[in-house]
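Worked example 3. Consider a protein that binds iron/sulfur cluster.
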Amino acid sequence: MPEGRGDGALLKVDNLHTHFFLPNGVLKAVDGMSLEVERGEVVAVVGESGSGKSVTALSILRLIPRHQGRIVDGRLLFKGHDLMKKSNREMQEIRGKQIAMIFQNPYAALNPVIRLGDQLIETARKHRAVTKSEGLELSLELLTHLDLEDPERIVRLRPFQVSGGINQRIMLALALIGEPQLLIADEATTMLDSLTQVEILELIDRVQRETGMAVLLISHDLGVVAQVSDRVVVMYMGQRVEQAPTGEILTSPKHPYTIGLRESAPDLETKGKRLPQIQGSPPDPQNLPQGCRFAPRCPHAMERCIQSSPPDFRLDDNTLVKCWLFETGSPT
Ligand code: SF4
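Given these inputs, the predicted complex is written out as structure tokens:
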């Protein structure tokens, strides 16, 4: 999906900068991030913990706690409308109804003292013009569709009385009940066992195909998101370092960081084998290198990489790489 088609994109994040103001300085968690999601597309954002993936997601929904940080620059366009110009009330209407989000820890996202059914009914009534009994009926239908066994019993329980997998299905139902056009799933399967992880991903994939909604799938695990995404955006230290169709990222990753992620991601061929890890640790986010941020860990680093940060080089309509090794591509 060429980036130039962005004006018609469902979501366009353009040169986003989200900074946190700490007592000892500024932390540039997101520092010039761009991405797009087309209608009906599944885009994965991958990167190690601390790369800025979740802050990007929270920024899209304008959920960065004000006392901690703020979006200092960039544009967030949803269906061509600038989310930065929306009032708090307008954003509340967009959240859940047009853009829904599911989080890593359903126990933290659900209200622990309210029955699961009541949480579903409340959300249904918030986003759809339904009565309480219609909300319950809608919730039961949705839970059945999400392969939840015995939904009539489950809706009478509270979050601590059911498993993490069931709670994550409830979170998914809460997200889907408003029929959003974009679902953001932030590490939605990370806390689950591998079998439940696959089930939740398959559910997201199935619902996506049935409804045509777009999905922004955020994960540290390239192997997990590759199963369902059309395109992958790789993030490192607050920036996009590569963007390409998923098949290309898996078979022919370009950026040295993406190559490292790919080699350390388990798949069928590597099952049971010891996988190589990316050498070194990410730099201190409050003391970033002046040149390429990956240079201290990169096996191909040159003098130039240490001196100056590379721009995005466009290799073709679908592929962007932020690395001096690809200077022959056209800078964007
Ligand atoms: Fe490595 Fe240089 Fe490319 Fe950065 S710009 S990833 S240091 S080769």
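Take a moment to read the result before moving on. Residues 1-6 have pLDDT under 50 and may be disordered. The two ends are 15 Å apart (CA to CA).
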